[in-house]
Amino acid sequence: MNTLVPLPVVLPLTVCGLSLFIGPRLRWLHRIITIGVLAAVVAVDLVLLVEADRTGPLAVHLGDFGPPLGVTLVADRLGALMLTVSGAVTLIVLIYALGQDMADREDSAPIAVFHPAYLVLVAGVSLTFLAGDLVNLYVGFEIMLMASFVLLTIGATEPRVRAGSTYVVVSLVSSLVFLSGVAVTYAAAGTVNFAQLAVRVPELPLGVRTMAEVLLLTVFAVKAAAFPVAAWLPDSYPTAPAPVTAVFAGLLTKVGVYSMIRTETLLFPGNRLSGVLMAVACASMLIGILGAVAQTDLKRLLSFTLVSHIGFMLYGLALGSRGGIGGAIVYTAHHITVQTTLFLAAGLLEKRYGTTELTRLGGAARTAPLLAALWFVPAMSLAGIPPLSGFIGKLGLMRAGAADGGGWAYVLLGAAAVTSLLTLYVVVKVWNLAFWRAAPVRELTPDGDVLEESDDPDSAPDEGAGVATATAVCVRTTARVPRVMTAATTAAVALGLAYTVLATPLAGLADRSAAELLARTPYVQAVLGP
Questions:
Q1: Angle, vertex CA 397, rays to CA 392 and CA 398, nearest 5
Q2: How confident is the model at residue 478 (pLDDT cuts 50, 70, 90)?
């Protein structure tokens, strides 16, 4: 089974290379091979998850060169779970994107840009979850980021290029800090292999350990969009196409959270910076959700909720207990799926009504009841309404916080409760404005200026109302939504509901993952031997 470990990285990169030789006229072939390879990756991820849960971490040394010189890939319970969830989500988003036909807009290009960039993104995400050393974790980040630069600016519109520039600058600066952290760690410990570092780092002087830990935590906080280094996200994500925004929101920030969990449990045991992590978690939850309350554009609103709910995952990590880390793992898996689904539903709303501005929407529950249901279910899960998966994850985190009994733990309990209530307020606000109320009718002058606005659909002016109000515009005018997009979003909702149905096995797997992370010995022995 160890020979399967590199496949989630190798398969997408191999097919990406093959796609370079396929011309733009063979669009059907691009679609078939991309969907086929991602389906194969999901199947491999599931096998790795079952085997890692049954026998323990699976490790492979590429080229048969062991540490510290060789490249080591490791699939333990946490990594395999993240691989499986991310693989399923990327496959769903790809089908959604093909339904939107986003991948085939540039007929003049020698190849379809979307397909190879998307496959490189999947390979980068998989490498970060499998990396057995700091250098390959860095390489995984860079592969992922290079692909994300392309996907973020597809179409090359002015807002996308401007937002992409901010994203590029922040990513490059964080990469430099990451390299600094790798350099400090290697200079002090003489290796970058995680298993060897797990043995050597605790023996380093306290100041050196603290410097390396702070550098790595800072980088991963930027990637995860945790406060106070999250200002780039609400400006970058909403401008991208809906499928790109969905996969970014679901996966890229969780790669940062995963890296925090991996390094804090394996390299820096003892939870010495728990107070700092709790402060960051508290600020992320409250400031992020307050930012969401103030938004009227649906995509920006969801971007702020993304920042807010990163705080829940950091809360579990900061507790450092088996229950806290297990709760963080459950919540991470839940949030990858639910946040992706919400952005996909927002894309459906934009496709049908031409806007995501809440003040211009209304009546969608009557004109598009299926779309309303596809929004409602993940929105309630995000708010933590029982028995959905968001409630299960939050309940686990709050129980772990209550069991901790510390002052900061109780502060975070209160912040989590307030954030959940404000999240419920935010999603209900979206429901009322976009789905429940009547669609607003606007009277326009011949120049296009708004003369009068009414929420009453029967208040539109008559044809003879006069020159000043000759045009009436109602936002209920709709466009056809491709069935493939709706089917993909339905599959994402079903995946989120599966977490509720399989809550007991998922919680058990997360608990075993947390125990394995805290023990450290299974990971070290899988890489270095008994």
A1: 100
A2: low
